[in-house]
Design the sequence.
């Protein structure tokens, strides 16, 4: 048993150790006079620190907490299955849902009641409300929370599989660029939290997991605080990881944005420590971890911008602007061009007088600058359009194509931001943003399921094109408005704003004159789609027929795709107006166009995707007019096509959603052809997948609507096959989900007059006699 003096000395040494980076040479000096007894005690303290760092590596200024006698065995619908980590604040368990409804695994964070004061319990409730606002793919989402019967506060969060960022980099022997890219991803997640006025307050490697798909997930917002929130949480709830705490945080100040910047700077410092020294990376670390908060980056966005500049081989703003540093970055970015220029300069020096060189240099500089811009525009156009089209045929290339577009966009943005930028340059940058937005979240083609990113880039494109003169600029503005209207209609159900955008697009198409003739068919098609969402079916039918009278694109592939969309929206408008048999003809036309196009261009993902949707549209219509046996084989064909697309590109969020849509139609056909058990099991799994999709992005109206419609479809299937009690419970759940859409102001006319109406009719038919 160590003596009291040995313990005191060990604690002092341990406190000093926490301020040193791992492997620091000062460690040997620090322990020079320590006895074996003290060394053993320090080793025990370090081991405890390492264990707690796995989840809640937090320290408290309060006295030793009072631990309860027993932890709960379950919270809500979840049974605590296995301990994942523990620390001073509590424990993290893997939870398994076992109420029989569906299978689901989560992480359950139990907070020891003894360390939470009455005031802190109120803060805990407030934090749960704040955390529910976070909606970012880089943040582990909160699912539920509360207080168990035994008085344990708990949070239920997404269960993330992966390694801490430092262990991942060590195991994979990641190069410097990869490490900085991972930190950049982490910065985006933290920036999203700051945008919701939430600080993390405990950023460290253990809270930054890298998933098997190389995505960074930020964990443990259980100690987050409202930025600028009034009041003092008191000593009972002031957790931190001292090794990653800023000086002011360690001194007792409440958490702020500057603390998150400091902590992420330390994470970056540790990750680059064993890589070759790099001036830019070092400068970013130094700025982020400056002892005084005023000398750090002002925002996480500013730190992220410097990381982006480093990744683009541009000088970082944190580095002193020395000529040598800027020259090194330039030559790294343009090493072949620099070599060629040096040879040309030597040749020129050998054959001209020194006085003539100055004049030639000036002329060459002007010419070279103009040529550089022209070349970069040509290269960017090739990369964004021609090369991307070729890469689209390569398996699993969507994420890579988007990353290329993101990196390239940095150059386009720089060109457009130059005060000397010509209108053509700004239009080129806007074109790049449109293409990037397409890949991030354009509904109806392969995308990454990032509608928020897509909307932001379309808004940026609109700002670039605003006020530019000429028909070309007007046409670009129209294209942006149409794309943005399509996005917010489908993802957000923001139909009023979409209407305003379409009106603006119409004005710009008129202003573009002859240049805009080719866009009129697209405009009318999208207008028909919006009118259908607004439940204005006669106007939708008129717009679809007007689109058919407009000129088609010269490219036969694009012409086929647009023609098929015209037929689709015409059939959809006729169907929802109530004439189901009348919708069969336009839907058959759509399927015929795409069957022919699929034979001509078998590798085109957009054609294959739209072909699958055409089988769905015609198949569901045939089911509704009691021709399910005819619908079943075409729905099987569409299902196979979508599954093949997903196998070809697993990141394709549009195909994943289309698969869920196709499955519902397929189960309806199965049920109508005598395969009820198979249909119910498949549709129940579909509902659970949609539920998880919605919980991943709870603020996205499209996902909630998809979930509600799937639940209602499951109730219909159960009711049609005699499972009335189950069906009524399912209908109740669907009604709750539609109620959430109403509460959020996202309940649209088509759901009021169709989906909700059918649900109410089914409940009246099957559930009126319930007790």
Sequence:
């Amino acid at each position: 048993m160590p003596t009291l003096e040995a313990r005191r000395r060990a604690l002092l040494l341990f406190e000093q150790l926490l301020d040193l980076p791992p492997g620091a040479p000062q460690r040997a000096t620090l322990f020079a006079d320590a006895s074996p007894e003290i060394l053993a005690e320090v080793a025990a303290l370090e081991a405890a620190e390492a264990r707690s760092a796995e989840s809640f590596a937090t320290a408290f200024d309060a006295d030793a907490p009072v631990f309860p006698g027993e932890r709960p065995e379950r919270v809500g619908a979840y049974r605590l299955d296995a301990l994942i980590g523990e620390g001073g604040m509590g424990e993290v368990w893997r939870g398994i849902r076992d109420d029989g409804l569906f299978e689901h695994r989560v992480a359950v964070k139990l907070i020891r009641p003894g360390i939470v004061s009455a005031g802190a319990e109120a803060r805990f409730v407030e934090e749960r409300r704040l955390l529910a606002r976070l909606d970012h793919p880089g943040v582990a989402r909160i699912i539920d929370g509360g207080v168990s019967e035994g008085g344990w506060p708990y949070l239920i969060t997404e269960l993330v599989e992966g390694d801490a960022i430092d262990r991942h980099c060590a195991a994979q022997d990641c190069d410097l660029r990869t490490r900085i890219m991972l930190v950049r991803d982490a910065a985006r997640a933290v920036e999203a939290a700051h945008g919701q006025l939430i600080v993390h307050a405990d950023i460290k490697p253990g809270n930054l997991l890298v998933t098997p798909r190389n995505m960074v997930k930020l964990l443990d917002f259980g100690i987050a605080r409202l930025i600028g929130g009034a009041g003092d949480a008191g000593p009972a709830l002031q957790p931190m990881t001292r090794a990653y705490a800023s000086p002011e945080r360690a001194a007792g100040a409440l958490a702020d944005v500057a603390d998150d910047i400091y902590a992420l700077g330390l994470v970056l410092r540790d990750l680059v420590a064993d890589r070759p020294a790099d001036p830019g990376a070092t400068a970013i670390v130094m700025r982020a971890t400056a002892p005084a908060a005023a000398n750090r980056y002002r925002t996480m966005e500013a730190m992220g911008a410097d990381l982006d500049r480093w990744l683009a081989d541009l000088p970082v703003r944190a580095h002193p602007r020395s000529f040598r540093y800027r020259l090194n970055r330039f030559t790294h970015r343009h090493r072949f061009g620099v070599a060629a220029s040096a040879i040309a300069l030597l040749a020129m020096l050998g054959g001209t007088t020194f006085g003539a060189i100055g004049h030639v240099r000036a002329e060459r500089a002007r010419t070279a600058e103009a040529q550089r811009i022209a070349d970069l525009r040509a290269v960017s156009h090739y990369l964004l359009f021609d090369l991307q089209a070729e890469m689209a045929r390569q398996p699993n290339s969507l994420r890579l194509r988007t990353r290329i577009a993101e990196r390239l966009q940095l150059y386009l943005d720089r060109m457009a931001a130059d005060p000397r930028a010509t209108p053509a340059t700004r239009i080129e940058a806007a074109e790049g943003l449109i293409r990037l937005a397409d890949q991030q979240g354009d509904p109806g083609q392969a995308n990454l399921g990032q509608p928020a990113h897509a909307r932001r880039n379309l808004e940026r494109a609109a700002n670039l094109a605003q006020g530019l003169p000429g028909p070309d600029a007007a046409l670009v503005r129209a294209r942006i408005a149409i794309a943005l209207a399509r996005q917010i209609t489908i993802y957000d159900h923001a139909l009023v704003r979409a209407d305003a955008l379409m009106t603006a697009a119409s004005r710009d198409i008129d202003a573009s004159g002859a240049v805009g003739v080719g866009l009129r068919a697209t405009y009318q098609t999208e207008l028909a789609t919006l009118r259908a969402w607004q439940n204005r079916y006669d106007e939708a039918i008129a717009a679809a027929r007007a689109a058919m009278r407009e000129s088609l694109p010269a490219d036969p592939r694009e012409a086929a795709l647009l023609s098929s969309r015209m037929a689709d929206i015409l059939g959809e408008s006729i169907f929802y107006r109530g004439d189901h048999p009348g919708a069969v003809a336009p839907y058959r036309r759509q399927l015929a166009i795409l069957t022919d196009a699929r034979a001509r261009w078998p590798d085109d993902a957009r054609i294959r995707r739209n072909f699958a949707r055409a089988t769905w549209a015609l198949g569901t219509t045939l089911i509704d007019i009691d021709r399910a046996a005819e619908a079943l084989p075409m729905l099987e064909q569409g299902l196979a096509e979508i599954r093949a697309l997903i196998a070809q590109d697993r990141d394709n969020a549009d195909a994943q959603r289309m698969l869920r849509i196709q499955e519902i139609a397929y189960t309806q056909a199965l049920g109508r052809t005598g395969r009820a058990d198979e249909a119910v099991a498949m549709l129940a799994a579909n509902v659970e997948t949609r539920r998880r999709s919605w919980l991943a992005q709870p603020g996205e109206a499209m996902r909630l609507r998809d979930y509600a419609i799937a639940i209602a479809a499951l109730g219909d299937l159960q009711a049609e096959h005699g499972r009335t009690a189950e069906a009524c419970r399912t209908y109740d759940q669907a009604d709750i989900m539609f109620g959430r859409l109403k509460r959020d102001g996202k309940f649209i006319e088509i759901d009021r007059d169709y989906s909700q109406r059918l649900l109410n009719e089914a409940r009246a038919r099957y559930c009126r006699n319930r007790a």
In short: The radius of gyration is 30 Å. The first strand starts at residue 74 and ends at 75. The CA atoms of residues 471 and 512 lie 4 Å apart. The first helix runs from residue 4 to 18.
